[in-house]
Amino acid sequence: MNIKTNLKRVINFSGGRTSAMMTILLKPTLEDIVLFTDTKREHNKTYEFIDNFEKNEGIRVIRISDELGFKRFNKELPNIYTRLCTKELKIKTAKRWLKDNKIITFENYIGFRADEPERVRDRDQRFKKVFDKFPLYEWGITEVDVLKFWEKRPYNLSIPKILGNCECCFLKGKDALIKIIANNNTAADEWIEDEKRTGYKFIKGFSYSTLKDIALSQTKLFNLENLEAAYKCKCNSL
Q: Are 216 and 145 in contact (CB under 8 A)?
């Protein structure tokens, strides 16, 4: 499924199964850029998956991150209305790296699937010289296809879907976060420190410290396998 083009190809690699499958099917050459923009808040198993991906597929993943990370936010923290983390830690970080490497005009490959038509429809063409491509959507590949694809590989991402992207992202919603923290009582600690440092909250009316207190009051662990985020994440692409 190698797509020939005269433009540089930038493949958005989020560290999850879907973008990894897309990358494999695109058969990147040494001329292509497979770019993982890291917020430094991913689950440890995500980083392990990327290592295994490179080892097994022979495809280099360029890993970049903002040097300040979440410490960049002092006057306001990201929230569901103002996704500063997406803007500052993902989009701007990727743009700076691409500009520094003189990559201005390119095709931007994004892993939106055929069962996510609203994500394709709602996608804004952000930059005039960047041309978005949605190969999985065009090929009719759904989440079911992605899961079947990884059943046949010698490695896989060994965490529930809800733990993908930033482990305790506010977009996952209060209920999901409480369950995540109940299963890993240190997962929210960096987020709690952010709120203490800035005096702001990621979720209106609830601090992560409160969510942790609720989580620690639970008497059982939760099954995270079928847990869904409250809001769609839009930070896995440039």
A: no
